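Here's what a typical entry looks like (Haloacid dehalogenase-like hydrolase domain-containing protein):
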Amino acid sequence: MLLRLLLGPLAAAPLPLPLRRRLAVAGGVRAMSSAAPAPSQRSRRPLRGVVFDMDGTLTVPVIDFPAMYREVLGGDAAYAAARAAGGGAVDILHCIEDWAPDKQRHAYEVIARFEKEGLDRLQIMPGASELCGFLDTKQIRRGLITRNVKDAVDLFHQRFGMTFTPALSREFRPYKPDPAPLLHICSTWNIPPHEVIMIGDSLKDDVVCGKRAGAFTCLLDETERYGPHDSLPEEVKPDFKVSSLTEVFTVLEENFDLAPASAESRI
């Protein structure tokens, strides 16, 4: 079980005026914890690394996943059955991993086509550049885990001039929600998982990956598709829930001691 965060209006170093203006809209951060403790009990946890999901977190969602799933699975009925089996969600990579080679190859071709179309419309998520710049000023490590392909990660790095190290794509096995990729990043950094936060837009992939690894978790839920946090099962409940990356500034400043990674943890 992750340590429950102790929240409250804590002292933090003043931010530059442009960031403070951005944070003015960040008052809606939701923390997944019980009632705030007394001021004398409040403390901030050390944080030395941030790991991001890519699609839907660092980039604007552009892939029509339901259409992809229908084509891969063979129509509406098969898609509905997969959703029912997955509790309303479809893990398409898991669905096809035991298929016959020819059928699996065709499925990956369909997935690759949808992903290629998504790359052509790739857009950075509002607030991503500013957040990464803020982490750099604090000397906080930043990594990336995606179930997309390496070509998509390379294009993201090239197009937007940001580099995440390590940046693990679906060529790294096992992929999310298995904690292996996040644990690999922590090992590479020589930073324990409890000093890292995983940020993503998927409960079943990003939050579960982070929780299983023993890291803090932050769910980006722009459209409130997951509903109130109190309705979420404990096994997928994140430590924080935000509606924009801009709100992550508040999460980090108010709840963590942002400690630079030591020299031996740097690549």
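Strands lie at 30-31, 45-47, 49-52, 141-145, 167-168, 196-200, 216-220, 240-242, 256-258.

More examples are in the samples folder.
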